[in-house]
Specification:
Elements (H helix, E strand, L loop, with lengths): L3 H25 L7 E6 H8 L3 H7 L5 E6 L12 E5 L11 E10 L22 E2 L10 H7 L11 E2 L2 H9 L5 E4 H9 L11 E11 L7 H15 L2
Parallel strand pairs: 1-2, 1-3, 5-6
Antiparallel strand pairs: 3-8, 4-7, 4-8
Helix pairs in contact: 1-5, 2-6
Amino acid sequence: MLTAAGEELARAVASGLETMASSAETLRSRRDDDDIVLLAELYVAMYWLIPRLPAFHASHPDLRLRVNASTQPLSHAESAFDLALQCGTRPAGALTPVYSVPDAVFPVCSPAIAGQYSLTPADLADYDILHCRDDPKDGWLSWNDWLAGVGARVAAPRGATFDNYPVVIQSALMGQGIALGWQRGLEHLIDTGQLVRPLAAAMNLPRGLSVYSAAPEAIDTNKQRVIDWLHTELVGA
């Protein structure tokens, strides 16, 4: 169970995300014709894309890239976009990926909770487990999906459930429990020791992260440059 401080943190983060979403919607309505709008899954934008944006702008000073972040899958996108970056397991409506790259999913937690590779799936019953809302329409991998995928014959322990993934990760960072982590999105937090992998098991996703175009038949030179840059960053990740 979350502590009172943890519950207060979760409410604060959720409120902040709602404010961000409202502000983002206002900005979307002010789009300039020269903007290339990249719609990114919120956790990917926060932990993977934003650290790379300074290098992008330095190498592409003539491009105007606008990043819109969302917790909704592409099938429920609420505003227009040119390109999108989303976990490959989530629904994208009628869109098909321009390309996809593999990813891996494994448990993560604060080093205050457990050490690197110190637990087995059976040990999870002794820990608080952090869940993202289990809605099949969202396409999120659940704990039971992950346990089955790595061949563990145990059921996912109960624990706190949050309505979006960034709040799950924030709770894990604060030492509130063990969450599922997507390697590409969380690599910086893992590399810097803010999160560790308490279990060695990992579930590999061939289509872990996908890049989409809203109009594949109308990809101009500038949009292609963004697509190529994303590919370079993802393949080199």
